[in-house]
């Protein structure tokens, strides 16, 4: 599926396929077994998490010949359930869908004001989590591959001017000349065939939304993806098993998606130097007098019970647990006194990339189609708007029947930032973010969608997000920041106040990016790892 498969890549994929999905699984070339690892263990380098940033770190460490252990709190998604599928679809969610829930918590709460979207499920280490804070909840992926397992695959490189505004200390020539191209190539980014896009029923929803945007004088752009559009075309032609065309996305894709377990992580395992351990949640980190990091790791079973707690030592520690995960680990370490030297910038500079979801009611003659691909392929690009910059992805809503809803995930430029504080009672980080901080996003999105509605004599949908709201501004797919580059870390992700400790994920980006973030997270991790491996041996 992924282009240019090397021998190393194939070895890694074989190791992932051979590994047991459950138990204290060690996945590696020489250790694809469910043999229980010792209660105290050591690796020269440990990577926490297995999403984009973590996977880059694991591959580059493995290539450098450094024995590396990856610790991931979610499970390995390689074993079919009773229905023969690894993942369940959005229309028929079961326990695989969400992380220890009794009911799914999909972003779209209702349809025609009815609670018909969410379903009861039994608790299980499912693939999508919704982390709830007081005024904001954050969707994240859980499992080997992190967010790459559940996301919409949109692989967007930010506009250079805004990237430079957000991260001025990063050499943009190098990013756009070397690291972004490398990230896109490694992730297997591709674009939809425009001729097929224009003809297929599966993107009718995008074409209608495009026409309405153009009627308002707005610009639309094709959006690259890590979903294999060749596979999608074969799905449409009946030559491949349907995944994006069968409602699969936020609870995982059974086919077609180049998630990082199939790209970076497979290659990392193929080096023979990298081992992944699943269902292993890093709870605490401290440092021994000789400099060794000691991680306290809870190994859980399928019921969520902590089966045992082990200690893992390492010389170099790479945090790739995502914006929430990495920030929490560092904040806890600072506040409990385990790593007292960490600076006050840990826990600051968090943002939701201005995320906001909204739906428009289309005219009865402007059908969006019963058949919709789950992978967005087009966006409305009004980022150059001087007062209200917005990049709005034209989102699918595949319900299997005509519903005349045009759905969007808008990314807005929101200057508000949240902070995390450590709550000792629950031993967790709490996000301080108030609903009023969404107002800049609501104002910007309203400006764009009012303009589109005016030009097409259409209105908002009131039935989708609960409480007659036209904007869902209470959740995000794009958590960014918490350990911001150049503040909580140096300009390469080295955590200030502790040597040989690194952040390598979305926590580095200061709250806003203007586009969907995973290409940038990957490219930044590539850039930082090259420097770290050259200098911090
Ligand atoms: P991430 O991928 O979140 O990986 C962190 C990993 O660490 C996870 O596997 C966690 O289970 C694990 N972890 C956390 N805490 C611990 C711990 N204490 N111990 C062990 N393991 C731990 O981090 N972005 C795009 O660019 N395009 C899209 O189309 C897009 N669509 C999205 C749709 C959805 C539904 C969601 C949820 C996200 C979407 N995103 C999209 C966001 C994107 O997936 C996200 O920015 C990246 O996955 C973040 O990458 P990180 O490396 O920061």
Uncertain regions spanning at least 5 consecutive residues: none
* Beginning-to-end CA distance, first to last residue: 35 Å
Task: Count up the helices.
Answer: 11
* Biggest beta-sheet profile: 8 strands, mixed
Supply Rg. 22 Å
Bound ligands, each once = flavin-N7 protonated-adenine dinucleotide
**Net shape:** globular
Residue-averaged pLDDT, rounded? 94
Which features characterize this protein?
21% strand, binds flavin-N7 protonated-adenine dinucleotide, 537 residues, eight-stranded mixed sheet, 11 helices
Explained architecture:
- The model has no long low-confidence stretch (mean pLDDT 94).
- The protein has helices at 7-18, 52-63, 160-166, 172-187, 194-199, 204-215, 229-236, 264-270, 322-335, 439-456, 518-535; strands spanning 26-27, 40-48, 68-71, 128-132, 137-141, 220-222, 274-277, 280-287, 293-300, 306-319, 348-351, 355-361, 378-382, 390-395, 405-412, 419-423, 428-432, 459-460, 471-472, 475-476, 480-482, 501-503.
- 54% of the residues are buried.
- The protein is α+β, with helices and mostly antiparallel strands.
- The chain has eleven helices and 22 strands.
- Helix content is 24%, strand content 21%.
- The site of flavin-N7 protonated-adenine dinucleotide has 40 residues, from α2, β5, β8, α9 and α11.
